[in-house]
């Protein structure tokens, strides 16, 4: 019930946030992109060459990430108080993808995926994710809101907005991260995949996904652990 009320605003707020902040801060988008491209060029020069490719589309790498992700998702770690932790079908594939993306190859076997294929699969996967999440969150939304009142929606809005604003201020002002990195970290910290898709379109670079990928696993673990421990001890 709480998920169904809070989720729509949680998605919309982060999506709007990553679009409005660069305009409010008058961010030089070309300069930010140039910095990312320079860092990406350094990484490309350090990658292995003369690798063997199983297929030109990179579906072998997708298959490896899916299989590895599902294996990780099934691992359950017992916790004190009778709770257990698992990465689930979101965290498992993400960790597997991070590992494969970092390695780029296994020996002389390439596990990289062409950029155009990545973009297509990302947009398709994002559409499926939103379809499933929207259907789940929208079921009985109006009825629940009428039953519980507008106060429940306000609570959800506060829980979405406060950590988002505080997190961005800490990242941008205290840690001195760039605007792109700060916004990517916020998307990951809020575990908002739709916001990442919006951020990529706003910034016109896929490299912001690196900041998202760095914070998403930590946020996912913390949410899972917090919800279980609060359920046990509260």
Automatic annotation (TrEMBL):
Membrane spanning residue stretches: 6-25, 51-73, 85-103, 124-144, 150-171, 183-202, 214-233
InterPro entries for this protein: AAE_transporter (IPR050144), YidE_YbjL (IPR006512)
Start and end residues of each YidE/YbjL duplication domain: 62-230
Cellular localisation: Cell membrane
Membrane topology, record value: Multi-pass membrane protein
Keyword Transport: yes
Keywords tagged on the record: Cell membrane, Membrane, Transmembrane, Transmembrane helix, Transport
Any Pfam family the entry gives: Asp-Al_Ex
Record GO cellular component, one term: plasma membrane
Family: Belongs to the AAE transporter (TC 2.A.81) family.
Name the UniProt record assigns to this protein: AspT/YidE/YbjL antiporter duplication domain-containing protein
Taxonomic source organism: Enterocloster lavalensis
């Amino acid at each position: 019930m709480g998920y169904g009320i809070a989720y729509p605003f949680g998605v919309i707020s982060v999506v709007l946030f990553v679009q409005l902040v660069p305009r409010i801060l008058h961010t030089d988008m070309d300069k930010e992109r140039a910095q990312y491209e320079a860092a990406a060029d350094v990484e490309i020069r350090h990658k292995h060459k003369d690798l063997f490719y199983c297929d030109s589309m990179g579906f072998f790498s997708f298959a490896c990430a899916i299989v590895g992700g599902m294996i990780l998702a099934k691992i359950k770690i017992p916790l004190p108080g009778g709770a257990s932790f698992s990465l689930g079908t979101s965290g498992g594939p993400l960790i597997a993808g991070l590992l494969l993306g970092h390695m780029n190859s296994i020996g002389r076997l390439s596990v990289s995926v062409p950029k155009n294929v990545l973009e297509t699969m990302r947009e398709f996967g994002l559409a499926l994710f939103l379809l499933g999440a929207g259907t789940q969150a929208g079921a009985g939304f109006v009825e629940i809101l009428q039953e519980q009142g507008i106060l429940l929606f306000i609570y959800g809005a506060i829980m979405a907005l406060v950590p988002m604003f505080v997190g961005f201020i800490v990242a941008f002002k205290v840690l001195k991260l760039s605007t792109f990195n700060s916004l990517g970290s916020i998307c990951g910290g809020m575990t908002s995949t739709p916001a990442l898709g919006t951020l990529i379109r706003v910034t016109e670079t896929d490299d912001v996904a690196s900041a998202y990928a760095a914070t998403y696993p930590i946020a996912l673990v913390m949410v899972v652990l917090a919800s279980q421990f609060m359920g046990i001890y509260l």
